C-alpha cells in the first residue's frame, strides 16, 4: 500500500514496522513502515491531520503522555524495540531528542535551558564541563554569539527564532542520536527559517534527523528522503529528488504541485 | 445613478460606524466608572475600619501608671543571685518579700490610700525587671507600676466616686500618669486591664500558624500534585474531589469539634496547646490549599511539561523542576487566603480549649496558650473600660500581623513570578 522508490540499502537508526496509532476508537496512523538513517535528513510531508506528528511521537514515546493513545506495531532503535515493557523512557528520550512546532523554552535562564538536560542525565561532573557543554550546544545551534553576554536572561525573553534555536540547543545538549523536529519553522520569519535550515544542514550526519514540514520548498532544501502521508497512511517514500520530480502516486503529485486542498 | 446611490450608502455607513464608535466609547467609559466606583467602595470600607480601629485602639497602647521611687539597696531584699537565673525566680522574689517592699515604698510616696490602689500584679513586672537586670537590687529607682483598674477609671472621670479626689491629687503631683505601655507587647494575659499584655496570645498565634503552615502546605500541595499528575481519572478521584470541595465549605466550628474528638482525645495533656490548635486549623486550611494548588497545577501549559519530558526528565523531575515552580504563585495565593482565614479563626480554637486563662507566654508547642482572636473574644467580654481599649489595641496588632503575613506571602510570590 506504500510506494517505495528504490534506494541504496542503509543501516536504519530507527526502524518502524507496521505502526498503527489509535486515539480512543479513532485510528490516526495505519500500518506505517519506514527506516530512518543517520546519513540523511528525512522529511515528513502531507496535509494537516494526516498523522505526521503522531508518527514522530511514536519514535520517542511522547504518545505515552496522551491518555487515550494506543500504539501497535514495532519501533526499533538500533534494533531494540522501544515499546518493550522493561525499556526506560527517560533513557530513550535522552537518545531521541525533540523540537516542537511552537518554541517552548523553559521559563528559566538561557544557560539553565541548555544545562538542564545534561544536569539531570549527569553528563557533566562539574561546572566547567557543564559550561563547556552549554557553549558547545549554543554554538552548534548558531545562537552563541547572540546570547553569550546574557546567559542569565530568561529564555522566554528571546525572539521566536532565537527561542527555537535555543530549543534545538537544548535538544542537542544531551547528545542525542536522533532529533525529531515537528514543524520547527512554522512560527518563524524567513530569515530565522533560513538560519535553522542551515543549522539542520550542519547537524546532518552527526544525528539522524526527521523534520515535519508544510513547506515543500523547505522539504526540498533540507531533506534527502521524503515521506508523503495522507489520511494516516504513508503513501510514498523515496529520495527527496525523486519524490519531487518524479512522484509515482497521483495523490503525491497533487499535493506537491499544490492542487491538493 | 448607481454611483450616486453607492456614495449615499457609503455616507450612511460612515454615519452608522461613527455612532457605533461613540456607543462603544461610552460603554467603555461607563465600565471604567463602575470599576472605579467599586474600588472606591472597598477602599472606603477599609479606611473606615482602619480609622475607627486606630482611633479606638491607640489608647489601648497606653496605661495608667503610678510612679513609685524604690530604694532596693536599703529595702534589704535578699535573694541569692543563682536563684534569679533559675526557673522559679519569680516565686523566689515573692517569697523574699518583693510585694511588701513595693507596698511600703508606695505607701511612703503615695500615702496608704494610694498604695492600696497599686495593681496587685505589679510585683510581677518588677520581678521580671530584676531577673533581667539583677543589678537593680543595688540601686534606687523610680518604678512605673500599673495602677488598679479602679484608679484608672477614676482618673478617666468614671468608676468609683470616692477615688476621684485621690486620682486628682496624685495626677497633680505627677505620680499618676497615662503613659505609653511598650510592655503591652511583651506581657501575657492578666485579670487587670492595666497589667495585661498580648505577647502570650501573639506568641500563641505565631506557634499555631507555624504548625498550621508546616502541616497544611506540604500535605495540601502533595495531595494536589498527586491528584493532578498521578491519579487516574475515575469514580474514586471524582469522589475525592467532591469531598475536598465540601471540606472547604464546612463551618469552622465543626473542625473544632473534630479537633476536640480526635486530637484532644489522642493527646489529652496537650489540650489548649498551639500544636493541637495548629493541627485543627490545618484540617481547615488544607482543602483551600488543595483546591487552589490543583487549579494552579492544571493551568501549567502542557508545552512546559512536554518540553521537559522530551529531553528525558522523569515524572518527578517534571513536577518539581517545572510544574511546581510555574504553579507556585497560584498555590501561594490560595495559601495566603487559607492562612489568613486560619489566623482570624476563633470558634474551632474555643472548642479545643484555647480559651483558658494563660498568664504566661507559651514556652513551646505543647504548652497551654491563647491566640490573638480568642484573646480579643475573651477581653471583649470584660466589663472594665480598660479592657475595651486593650481589645481594640489587640485588633490592631492582629491586623498588623495579618498584613505582615500577607505582605511576606506576596513578596515571596513576586519573587517566584520574577524568576519565570
Ligand atoms: N491528542 C489527540 N487526541 C485525539 N486525537 C488526536 C490527538 N492528536 C491528534 N489526533 C488526531 O490524529 C490525527 C493525526 O493528527 P496529527 O497531529 O498526527 O496530524 P499532523 O499530520 O501532525 O497534522 P498537522 O500538519 O496539522 O500538524 C488527526 O485526525 C487528529 O485529529
Ligand atoms: Mg502536526
From TrEMBL, chain A:
Pfam (any one): ABC_tran
UniProt keyword annotation of Nucleotide-binding present: yes
Signal sequence segment: none
SMART domains named among the record's database cross-references: AAA
GO cellular component terms listed in the entry, alphabetical order: membrane
Gene Ontology terms: biological process: phosphate ion transmembrane transport
Gene Ontology MF terms: ATP binding; ATP hydrolysis activity; phosphate transmembrane transporter activity
PANTHER family, A to Z: ABC TRANSPORTER I FAMILY MEMBER 17 (PTHR43423)
Protein name as catalogued: Phosphate ABC transporter ATP-binding protein
Classification lineage: Bacteria, Pseudomonadati, Pseudomonadota, Alphaproteobacteria, Sphingomonadales
TrEMBL record, chain B:
PANTHER family: PHOSPHATE TRANSPORT SYSTEM PERMEASE PROTEIN PSTA, PHOSPHATE TRANSPORT SYSTEM PERMEASE PROTEIN PSTA-RELATED
Species this chain originates from: Novosphingobium aerophilum
UniProt keywords, alphabetically: Cell membrane, Membrane, Transmembrane, Transmembrane helix, Transport
CDD domains referenced in this protein's UniProt entry, alphabetically: TM_PBP2
Family: Belongs to the binding-protein-dependent transport system permease family. CysTW subfamily.
Protein name: Phosphate transport system permease protein PstA
Domain ABC transmembrane type-1: 202-409
Compartments in which it is found: Cell inner membrane; Cell membrane
Amino acid at each position: 500500500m506504500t510506494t517505495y522508490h528504490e534506494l541504496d540499502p542503509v543501516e536504519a537508526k530507527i526502524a518502524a514496522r507496521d505502526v498503527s496509532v489509535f486515539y480512543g476508537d479513532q485510528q490516526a496512523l495505519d500500518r506505517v513502515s519506514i527506516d530512518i538513517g543517520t546519513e540523511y535528513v528525512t522529511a515528513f510531508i502531507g496535509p494537516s491531520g494526516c498523522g505526521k506528528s503522531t508518527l514522530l511521537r511514536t519514535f520517542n514515546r511522547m504518545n505515552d503522555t496522551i491518555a487515550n493513545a494506543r500504539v501497535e506495531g514495532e519501533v526499533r532503535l538500533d534494533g531494540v524495540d522501544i515499546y518493550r515493557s522493561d525499556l526506560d523512557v527517560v533513557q530513550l528520550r535522552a537518545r531521541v531528542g525533540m523540537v516542537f512546532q511552537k518554541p517552548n523554552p523553559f521559563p528559566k535562564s538561557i544557560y539553565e535551558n541548555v544545562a538542564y538536560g545534561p544536569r539531570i542525565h549527569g553528563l557533566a561532573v562539574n561546572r566547567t564541563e557543564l559550561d563547556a557543554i552549554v557553549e558547545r550546544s549554543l554554538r552548534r545551534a548558531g545562537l552563541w554569539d547572540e546570547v553569550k553576554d546574557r546567559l542569565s536572561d530568561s529564555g522566554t525573553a528571546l525572539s521566536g527564532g532565537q527561542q527555537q534555536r535555543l530549543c534545538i540547543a537544548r535538544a542537542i545538549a544531551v547528545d542525542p542520536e536522533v532529533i525529531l523536529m515537528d514543524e520547527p519553522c512554522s512560527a518563524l520569519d524567513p530569515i530565522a527559517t533560513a538560519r535553522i535550515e542551515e543549522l539542520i544542514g550542519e547537524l546532518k550526519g552527526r544525528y539522524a534527523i526527521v523534520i515535519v514540514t508544510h513547506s515543500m520548498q523547505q522539504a526540498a532544501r533540507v531533506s534527502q528522503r521524503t515521506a508523503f502521508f495522507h489520511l494516516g497512511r504513508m503513501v510514498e517514500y523515496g529520495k527527496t529528488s525523486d519524490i519531487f520530480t518524479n512522484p509515482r502516486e497521483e495523490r503525491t503529485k497533487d499535493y506537491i504541485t499544490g492542487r491538493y486542498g | 445613478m448607481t454611483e450616486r446611490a453607492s456614495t449615499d450608502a457609503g455616507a450612511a455607513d460612515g454615519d452608522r460606524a461613527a455612532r457605533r464608535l461613540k456607543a462603544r466609547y461610552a460603554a467603555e467609559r461607563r465600565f471604567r466608572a463602575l470599576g472605579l466606583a467599586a474600588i472606591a467602595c472597598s477602599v472606603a470600607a477599609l479606611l473606615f475600619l482602619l480609622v475607627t480601629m486606630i482611633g479606638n485602639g491607640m489608647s489601648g497602647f497606653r496605661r495608667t501608671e503610678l510612679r513609685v521611687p524604690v530604694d532596693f539597696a536599703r529595702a534589704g531584699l535578699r535573694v541569692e543571685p543563682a536563684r534569679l537565673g533559675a526557673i522559679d525566680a519569680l516565686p523566689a522574689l515573692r517569697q523574699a518579700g518583693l510585694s511588701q517592699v513595693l507596698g511600703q515604698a508606695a505607701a511612703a510616696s503615695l500615702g496608704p490610700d494610694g498604695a492600696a490602689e497599686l495593681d496587685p500584679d505589679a510585683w510581677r513586672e518588677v520581678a521580671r525587671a530584676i531577673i533581667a537586670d539583677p543589678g537593680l537590687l543595688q540601686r534606687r529607682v523610680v518604678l512605673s507600676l500599673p495602677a488598679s483598674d479602679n484608679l484608672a477609671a477614676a482618673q478617666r472621670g468614671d468608676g468609683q466616686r470616692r477615688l476621684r479626689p485621690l486620682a486628682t491629687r496624685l495626677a497633680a503631683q505627677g505620680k499618676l500618669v497615662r503613659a505609653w505601655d511598650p510592655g503591652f507587647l511583651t506581657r501575657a494575659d492578666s485579670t487587670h486591664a492595666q497589667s495585661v499584655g498580648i505577647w502570650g496570645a501573639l506568641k500563641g498565634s505565631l506557634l499555631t500558624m507555624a504548625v498550621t503552615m508546616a502541616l497544611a502546605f506540604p500535605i495540601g500541595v502533595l495531595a494536589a500534585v498527586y491528584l493532578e499528575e498521578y491519579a487516574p481519572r475515575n469514580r474514586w478521584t471524582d469522589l475525592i474531589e467532591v469531598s475536598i470541595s465540601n471540606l472547604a465549605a464546612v463551618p469552622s466550628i465543626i473542625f473544632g469539634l473534630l479537633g476536640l474528638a480526635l486530637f484532644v482525645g489522642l493527646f489529652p495533656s496537650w489540650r489548649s496547646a498551639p500544636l493541637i490548635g495548629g493541627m485543627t486549623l490545618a484540617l481547615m486550611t488544607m482543602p483551600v490549599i488543595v483546591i487552589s494548588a490543583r487549579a494552579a497545577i492544571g493551568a501549567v501549559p502542557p508545552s512546559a511539561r512536554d518540553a521537559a519530558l522530551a529531553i528525558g526528565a522523569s515524572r518527578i523531575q517534571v513536577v518539581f523542576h517545572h510544574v511546581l515552580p510555574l504553579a507556585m504563585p497560584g498555590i501561594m495565593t490560595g495559601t495566603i487566603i487559607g492562612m489568613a482565614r486560619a489566623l482570624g479563626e476563633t470558634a474551632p480554637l474555643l472548642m479545643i480549649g484555647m480559651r483558658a486563662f494563660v498568664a504566661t507566654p507559651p514556652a513551646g508547642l505543647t504548652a497551654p496558650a491563647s491566640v490573638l482572636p480568642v484573646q480579643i473574644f475573651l477581653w471583649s467580654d470584660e466589663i472594665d473600660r480598660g479592657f475595651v481599649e486593650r481589645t481594640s489595641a489587640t485588633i490592631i496588632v492582629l491586623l498588623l500581623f495579618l498584613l505582615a503575613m500577607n505582605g511576606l506571602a506576596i513578596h515571596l510570590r513576586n519573587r517566584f513570578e520574577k524568576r519565570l
